[in-house]
Design brief:
The complex is a heterodimer of chains A (about 160) and B (about 800). Chain A is α+β, with helices and mostly antiparallel strands. Chain A folds into two domains: about 70 residues, Beta-grasp domain (Ubiquitin-like (UB roll)); about 70 residues, DNA polymerase, domain 1. Chain A is built from six helices and five strands, in the order E-E-H-E-E-E-H-H-H-H-H. Chain A has a five-stranded mixed beta sheet with strand order 2-1-5-3-4. The relative contact order of chain A is 0.16. Chain B is of the alpha+beta class. Chain B folds into three domains: about 150 residues, Aldehyde Oxidoreductase, domain 4 (2-Layer Sandwich), CATH 3.30.365.10; about 180 residues, Aldehyde Oxidoreductase, domain 3, CATH 3.90.1170.50; about 350 residues, Aldehyde oxidase/xanthine dehydrogenase, molybdopterin binding domain (Aldehyde Oxidoreductase, domain 4, 2-Layer Sandwich), CATH 3.30.365.10. Chain B is built from 21 helices and 30 strands. In chain B, strands 3-7-1-14-11-12-13 form a seven-stranded mixed beta sheet, sandwiched between helices. The longest helix of chain B has 27 residues. The N and C termini of chain B lie far apart (about 65 Å). The relative contact order of chain B is 0.13. Classes of the chains: A alpha+beta (about 160), B alpha+beta (about 800). The structure holds FE2/S2 (inorganic) cluster (FES) (2 copies).
Chain lengths: ~160, ~800
C-alpha cells in the first residue's frame, strides 16, 4: 500500500507491505538508523520517535498507521551540524556512554519539554521511565534535561 | 595529591559523543552491504537432548533459502571456547542447554527465513537434565560433557594458617549459607555481526564485539585460516559489561562460515529473546561461610566454600572463580583462612564474564556476615570493619603483603561514614526497627487506614559494604598493552590502542592521557577505528584494566614521541643543555626563555628535518605470582578500595525496598576523565542495585522464563533517588600517573550495602539475592510452579 507522511519536516511517500513496523520503515526504507531496536516489544524505548509530537515506540506502530502524520526522528532533531540544546546538554553532562539508548532518550525528553517546559525531577523521570539505559544510571540524563529546560526558558524570556 | 595537570582530571566530552547523540554512530546492525544475506538459527525447545536426525527436505528447494549451514560446513575447529574448547559451533549430535544451535539457514529475507525454521523437522530424544549445581559432583550425576569424566570445571583451593586452630581460639563462631542469583548483562543493543569475504579467501568481521583479538583467534581457528587472513573491526558497541565476548565469538564464527561458503556478506542479528536465550550470564553462587572471632570482633579464622554454577559450558568460569578465591574473605586481615571455590557444569544457561567478575557474590555474603558479627559483639558496622580491615603492610588471604600503594580501605570507609553520618543513623534506625506485618490467609495484610497513610508502614534503614579489588588480570593471564601514536605534518595527532572501547569512554581516557603527556589539547587527537590488523593484541578490555593498562601505554607512546620533539625544539630554538623544555596545550616552553614555539611549528620543523614522528608505547604489568595448590601468592600487582552506603525505605506491608540514596566512595587512583569516572559510578551503582533488589533470570528445567524486558526487569530512571559519587585519589606508582580501576568496583558493593540497610530497617537478615518483594516479605521466591502445585 501507498502511504504519505511528513518525515523530519519533509513530505515523503512509500509503498509498503501492510505488516511492516514503523521501525523497519525508518531503518530500512529511509536508512534512518539512528532509531534503534532493543527489544521489539515496547519495553526499552530505544526505538522512540515522535508521532504528531508524542513519543511512541516505533516497534509497536505499524507503518500503515503513520499515513498523513508527522514523524520526527533523531536525524530530524539535529539542524545540519548544529546540535539541539538537548543533545548538547546530553554531551556536556556525560549522559551518553554506549549511546544506544541516546536517540530514544533525546526524543522522549524532547516530547516532554514541548509539552511541559518546566518539568520537575519526578516529571523528567516519568517521561524517560520507558527508556531503558544500562550504562549511565540515568542521573546525567536527568541533569541534561533539567539544564535544557532552564536554558530554553531563559531564551524565551529574552 | 596535587599534580599540575592541564587536562587529566578534568571533565571532558567524549570524542564519539557527537556521532552518538545525532544517531549517526554506526552500531553493528546499522551496517548494510551489497548482496548481504541474513542467517537465522535452528534450535529445539529442549534443555538436554540427543539429536537423532534433522530433515531439511521441506525447505531445501525453497527459493528463499540460499544455503543451509551445518557443522559439515566448518573447515576448522568445530568446538570453541575462551579457555576450554567445549562449545560446538553447531550441535549436530546433542544439545546441552536450550540456547544451543543445531544449524542455520541463510537467505535474503530474514522474516521469511524465521518462518521457514518451523518447517525443518528435528527428531530428538530428550535426556534427563541436571540443573541443580549441588548435585553436579554426586557420584551418580549425569555428565554434561562425558569426555571430561566429571562435571567439575575448576577447583581453586586456598590455605593460609590453620583454620581449626583459629576456630579453637575464637570466642564465637558463626556459620551461614548464602545464595546469589543468575543475572543477564542486559546491554540494550542485542548482538549483531556481519562477515564479509575479501579477496584471497580472507575475511572481515564487523560486529558488536567486546574483544576483537579474541574474535579473530576463534574465527581463524573455525575457518582454519591464519590469523592475518581474518580482520576484525569493532562497530560502536551498544553496551557489553563483559557480555559480548564468547557469544560474539560464536556468532562471528557462524557468520564467517556462511560468508566463506557462499562468498557473500552474511549478517546475524539477534532479537532480544534470542540474546537472552543464548548469551551467557552472571554465575549464581552458593556460599558457605564459617567465621570465628574474639569478643572484641577480631576475626581469627574463616572457612569458605563457594560453588559456582558454570552452566553448560566452561567459558570464563576458571578466571571468574579465581577472582573469588583471592577476594572471598573481603578486605580483612585474617590469620587462618581455608577457601575452596568450585565451578561445575549443569544444563543451565552457561555463565561467564560479567562486570564484577566473581566479586559481587562473595561480597554479598562476606559483607552481610560482617554486619552480623558487629551485631553479635555490639559495635556499629563501620567499627567492625575498622578492627579487621586491611592497612598498609597487612597480609591478605593469599599471603600478599600490601605495600607500595595507598591502602585506602579505612580512609574510604571513614569518608563514607562521616559523609553520610552513618553510625548515628544506623543506631537511630535500629531503635525504630519493626518487623514485617504478619501475613496470613484469613487476615488481610493491610487495614483500611494503612492504605490511606502508608507512611506508618515505611521503615528507614542504612547499610554499608566495603571491598578491595585486584586491578587488571593478575595472575590469571598475560597482561600487557600497546598504543600507537603519530603526528601528521599539519600537527594533527592520530592514535590507536590495542584495547577496545566498550562504550564506557575508554578511548577518551586514553586520548586524554596522550594529550597530557604530549602537551596538546584533546581536540588535536583523532582516535582511529579499532582494527586487529593494525595494532598488536593488547588483551581484552576486561577486569577494569582499560585505564590502568591502556592509559599507561598511551602515556608511554606520547612520551617517546615528545622526547623526539624535544630534541627538535631544542635545536630550532638553540637552547642550551641545561634548559628545560615542556609541552603544554599546543605550546612549547623553555624554562629560561618562556614560550618558544607552537606545537605545530615544532612538528613542521621535525617533518622538514626527517625526524621520526610516530611511536609505539607499551605497558606490561609488574610481576605477580600464584601457587595453584595453596592459593598463595602476590595475586594482583595493585588494588583499589571502595565503600558504598545505601539508605533505603522498606514498606513493611509489601516488602518493597526503595533506594533513597547510595553514596559511593572509591579510590581509583588518579582520575583521568572526571565526567567519565562519575558516569562509571552512576552506571555501576545502578547495575548493582538491580542485582540487589530486582534482577533474576530463573529457569524451569533449564528453560529461561524471562526472555525479554517485559519479564526481566532492570532499573529504570525511577528506581534510585540519589547517587553520590566521591573519589579519594590515592597514590600509586603503576599505571599512568597512578590511574587505576573504577568500572567494576562501582557495581560490586551495592547488593551487600542494600541488604545490610534492609536489615537495619527490619531487624531481619537476608541470605538470598535479590531482595525482591517475595524475598523480603516471605523469605523465599515465588515461582510459577508454586502456583501449579494444586492442579498437578
Ligand atoms: S525496540 Fe521498541 S521499545 Fe524496545
Ligand atoms: S548509554 Fe548505553 S544504554 Fe544508555
Amino acid at each position: 500500500m501507498e502511504i504519505k507522511f511528513v518525515l523530519n519536516g519533509k513530505e515523503v511517500a512509500a509503498d509498503i507491505s501492510p505488516s511492516i513496523r514503523l521501525l523497519d520503515l525508518l531503518r530500512e526504507k529511509f536508512e534512518l538508523t539512528g532509531t534503534k531496536e532493543g527489544c521489539g516489544v515496547g519495553e526499552c524505548g530505544a526505538c522512540t520517535v515522535l508521532m504528531n509530537g508524542k513519543a511512541v515506540n516505533s516497534c509497536l506502530v505499524l507503518a500503515a498507521q503513520v499515513n498523513n502524520s508527522e514523524i520526527l526522528t533523531i536525524e530530524g532533531i539535529t539542524n545540519g551540524e548544529e546540535l539541539h540544546p538537548l543533545q548538547k546538554n546530553f554531551l556536556l553532562n556525560g549522559a551518553v556512554q554506549c549511546g544506544f539508548c541516546s536517540p530514544g532518550m533525546v526524543l522522549s525528553s524532547y516530547a516532554l519539554l514541548e509539552e511541559n517546559p518546566n518539568p520537575t525531577d519526578e516529571e523528567i523521570k516519568d517521561a524517560i521511565a520507558g527508556n531503558l539505559c544500562r550504562c549511565t544510571g540515568y542521573k546525567q540524563i536527568i541533569d541534561a534535561v533539567k539544564q535544557t529546560a532552564k536554558e530554553l526558558k531563559v531564551e524565551v524570556k529574552v | 595529591m596535587s599534580k599540575d595537570f592541564s587536562i587529566v582530571g578534568k571533565s571532558v566530552i567524549r570524542e564519539d559523543g557527537f556521532e552518538k547523540i545525532t544517531g549517526r554512530a554506526k552500531f553493528a546492525d546499522d551496517y548494510k552491504f551489497d548482496g548481504m544475506l541474513f542467517s537465522v538459527m535452528l534450535r529445539v525447545p529442549a534443555t538436554h537432548a540427543k539429536i537423532n536426525s534433522v530433515d531439511f527436505s521441506a525447505i531445501q528447494n525453497n527459493p528463499s533459502v540460499a544455503s543451509i549451514i551445518t557443522s559439515q560446513d566448518i573447515p576448522g575447529a568445530k568446538k570453541i571456547g575462551m579457555i576450554k574448547n567445549d562449545q560446538p559451533v553447531f550441535c549436530d549430535e546433542k544439545i546441552v542447554t536450550p540456547g544451543d544451535v543445531l544449524a542455520m539457514i541463510v537467505g535474503e529475507d530474514e522474516t521469511e527465513l524465521r518462518k521457514l525454521l518451523t518447517k525443518i523437522k528435528v527428531d530428538y530424544t530428550s535426556l534427563p537434565t541436571l540443573t541443580d549445581p549441588k548435585k553436579s559432583l554426586d557420584p551418580d550425576a549425569l555428565l554434561i560433557h562425558p569426555e571430561f569424566g566429571s562435571n567439575l570445571i575448576v577447583h581453586h583451593p586456598l590455605r593460609k594458617g590453620n583454620v581449626e586452630k583459629g576456630f579453637a581460639e575464637s570466642d564465637e563462631i558463626l556459620e551461614r549459607v548464602y545464595t546469589t542469583q543468575t543475572i543477564e548483562h542486559a546491554y540494550i543493543e542485542p548482538e549483531a555481526v556481519i562477515a564479509i569475504p575479501l579477496e584471497d579467501g580472507a575475511l572481515k568481521v564487523i560486529g558488536s564485539i567486546q574483544n576483537p583479538f579474541t574474535v579473530r583467534r576463534i574465527v581463524a581457528s573455525v575457518l582454519n585460516l591464519p590469523n592475518e587472513k581474518v580482520q576484525v573491526v569493532q562497530a560502536q558497541l551498544g553496551g557489553s559489561f563483559g557480555g559480548k565476548d564468547d557469544t560474539m565469538c560464536m556468532l562471528s564464527a557462524r557468520a564467517a562460515v556462511a560468508a566463506l561458503k557462499l562468498n557473500r556478506s552474511v549478517k546475524i542479528r539477534y532479537t532480544r529473546d534470542e540474546s537472552i536465550l543464548e548469551s551467557y550470564k552472571r554465575h549464581p553462587y552458593i556460599l558457605k561461610y564459617k567465621v570465628g572471632f574474639s569478643k572484641i570482633g577480631k576475626i581469627n579464622a574463616m572457612k569458605i566454600d563457594l560453588l559456582a554454577d558454570g552452566g553448560a559450558y566452561c567459558s570464563m568460569s576458571p578466571f571468574v572463580t579465581w577472582r573469588s578465591v583471592v577476594q572471598a574473605t573481603g578486605p580483612y586481615e585474617i590469620e587462618n583462612v581455608q577457601t575452596d571455590v568450585r565451578a561445575v557444569y549443569t544444563n543451565n544457561p552457561y555463565t561467564g564474564a560479567m562486570r564484577g567478575f566473581g566479586s559481587p557474590q562473595p561480597i554479598f555474603a562476606q559483607e552481610t556476615l560482617m554486619d552480623e558479627i558487629a551485631l553479635h559483639i555490639g559495635v556499629t558496622p563501620d567499627e567492625i570493619r575498622r578492627r579487621n580491615g586491611l592497612k598498609l603492610g597487612s597480609v591478605t588471604a593469599t599471603g600478599q603483603t600490601l605495600k607500595e600503594h595507598d591502602v585506602n580501605l579505612i580512609p574510604v570507609l571513614n569518608k563514607a561514614v562521616s559523609f553520610t553520618n552513618f553510625a548515628e543513623k544506623w543506631k537511630e534506625n535500629k531503635k525504630n526497627q519493626t518487623g514485617l506485618k504478619e501475613y496470613s490467609f484469613d487476615q488481610p495484610i493491610f487495614k483500611d487506614e494503612q492504605f490511606i497513610s502508608s507512611e506508618k508502614l515505611i521503615k528507614k534503614g542504612i547499610g554499608l559494604a566495603v571491598s578491595f579489588r585486584g586491578c587488571s588480570l593478575g595472575a590469571e593471564g598475560l597482561d600487557q598493552s600497546s598504543c600507537y601514536i603519530s603526528v601528521q605534518p599539519d600537527g594533527k595527532v592520530v592514535m590507536l590502542s590495542g584495547l577496545a572501547e566498550n562504550g564506557q569512554g575508554l578511548r577518551m581516557t586514553l586520548l586524554m592521557a596522550a594529550a597530557e603527556e604530549l602537551g596538546v589539547t584533546a581536540d588535536k587527537i583523532i582516535f582511529l577505528e579499532n582494527d586487529t590488523s593494525k595494532i598488536e593484541d593488547s588483551g581484552p578490555t576486561v577486569a577494569s584494566r582499560g585505564t590502568i593498562m591502556g592509559a599507561a601505554a598511551a602515556k608511554n607512546a606520547a612520551e617517546l614521541l615528545r622526547k623526539q620533539l624535544e630534541k627538535v625544539a631544542r635545536e630550532v630554538s638553540k637552547l642550551d643543555e641545561t634548559d628545560f623544555i615542556s609541552f603544554r596545550e599546543n605550546l612549547v616552553f623553555s624554562r629560561k626563555k618562556g614560550m618558544i614555539a607552537k606545537f605545530d611549528d615544532v612538528i613542521k620543523a621535525a617533518f622538514e628535518n626527517k625526524v621520526e614522528l610516530s611511536a609505539i608505547g607499551r605497558y606490561k604489568s609488574p610481576d605477580v605470582s600464584w601457587d595453584e595448590h595453596t592459593g598463595q601468592g602476590d595475586a594482583y600487582f595493585t588494588y583499589v578500595y571502595g565503600c558504598q552506603v545505601a539508605e533505603v525505605s522498606v514498606n513493611t506491608g509489601t516488602g518493597e525496598v526503595y533506594l533513597n540514596k547510595i553514596t559511593a566512595v572509591h579510590d581509583p587512583g588518579t582520575v583521568i576523565n572526571r565526567l567519565g569516572a562519575i558516569g562509571q559510578v552512576y552506571g555501576g551503582v545502578t547495575q548493582g542495585a538491580g542485582y540487589g533488589i530486582l534482577e533474576e533470570v530463573t529457569n524451569e528445567d533449564g528453560m529461561i522464563r524471562e526472555l525479554n524486558f517485559d519479564q526481566y526487569l532492570i532499573p529504570t530512571a525511577k528506581d534510585i533517588d540519589e547517587i553520590k559519587p566521591l573519589f579519594l585519589e590515592g597514590n600509586e606508582k603503576y599505571g599512568a600517573w597512578g590511574a587505576k580501576s573504577l568500572g567494576e568496583p562501582t557495581l560490586e558493593l551495592g547488593a551487600a550495602a542494600i541488604a545490610n540497610a534492609v536489615c537495619n530497617a527490619l531487624g531481619k537478615r537476608f541470605y538470598n539475592l535479590p531482595l525482591n518483594l517475595e524475598e523480603v516479605l516471605l523469605g523465599r521466591k515465588l515461582r510459577p510452579q508454586d502456583l501449579k502445585r494444586g492442579s498437578l
